[in-house]
């Protein structure tokens, strides 16, 4: 009876752990997809805006956000007035974008996005935690969900044939839109070639995490993978750490498992493969 109870407790612990990892996977994946949708609106919104707006000296900046699931890119003037609103359909085709060049005030939610975006920009300019690298620039992505205010800062390459992971940061804010905390999501910058001189076009990739709080794949990793998928065509990508192995695939599915479980699974696959090959040789 005692052994049965012990086994039952172990099974419950395993099930609870699996449910927690599935919940964590869903949360990270959903946030990564939301960041991607915002960044796509910024990418294509900038193209649409520049093609239709002449007085560029009047521009103070821009940001994107999801308005009831509709991606919108907002450009504002140096007087902090909205001078362009570009809304996108799910295909992000610039030809299908809804462009409004009427000057107006920020809506209440836009004013919140504007405030944390500007405060993040000021922090980037003064805090030495932020590192700049040649042929890169920072992308500022304000994010508000369930009254939680964040700004993700990603590093984007200004040269071709490179996908940049890392050198990304997360700023969190209080209810007054003041910066509460700044943290690095990766320990360094990880440039990855799309086309390798020796092996040709890469088909996948992997990098490791060592920052204790960010041992799984990050929302910024997922955002980057989705942004560059049309160039890389990577079917999958793996992030490893001492505690977790995160596997993302191009169907926007994410699986996170304990590193020890992943190693055991890999060892069993190799053992079964060796047994199969040995059997085939003796037959």
TrEMBL record:
Protein name: Nuclear transport factor 2 family protein
Species this protein is from: Chryseobacterium zhengzhouense
